[in-house]
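explain this:

___
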Amino acid sequence: VGEVMTLVDHLEELRNRVIKMIVAVVVGTVVGYLGVDRLIALVSVPLEGRTLMFTSPGEGFFIRIKLAVVVGIVLGMPVILFQLWRFIAPGLTPEERRMARPWVPMALVFFAIGVAVIVFMSAMLASLQSNFLKRVLTSQPQIQILPPDQMARTLRGGRHEIEDAIVQRPSQRVMPPMPVLTHSPPCRRLM
């Protein structure tokens, strides 16, 4: 405190603090990777027994790595905030330090609240999506085959012409003229 540091001294201290932050995240990531299977099981609870699908060959591995890194950041956050405080605090006046000191633990509390909200919201959204998929997959589609003249009106005019076509008697229906193609674009071979 009160010691004047050169630019090189500041950069060395910043480097040491960043290395400590990275080590904390790496240690947290290793711990997270050891428990990633339990985390995946916890996250997939709202899916109610459905299996998770991977859409590319490496996705099963990379999803585990991504989850482990997120856990590493969450577990390393106290060290990250402490190292940031230790780097910034010497440059503050005693009054500024006194004003900022309560916010360092509060940042950790707010971060934990944010993580809890994200976990709760993702579980809720997964449950909603699961319920939606259940309704979509169990509902029967309603398919109706229209006569050609009514289909042409549907494709051309929209809702009002459809209602008019339904109200009119079949003898009063007039089919609009079909467009004539004068030139067709050349076809490309696929093979």
Q: What stands out?
A: The radius of gyration is 32 Å. The chain has a mean pLDDT of 77. The longest helix spans residues 103-138. Helices lie at 7-34, 36-43, 59-88, 94-100, 103-138, 148-157, 159-167.
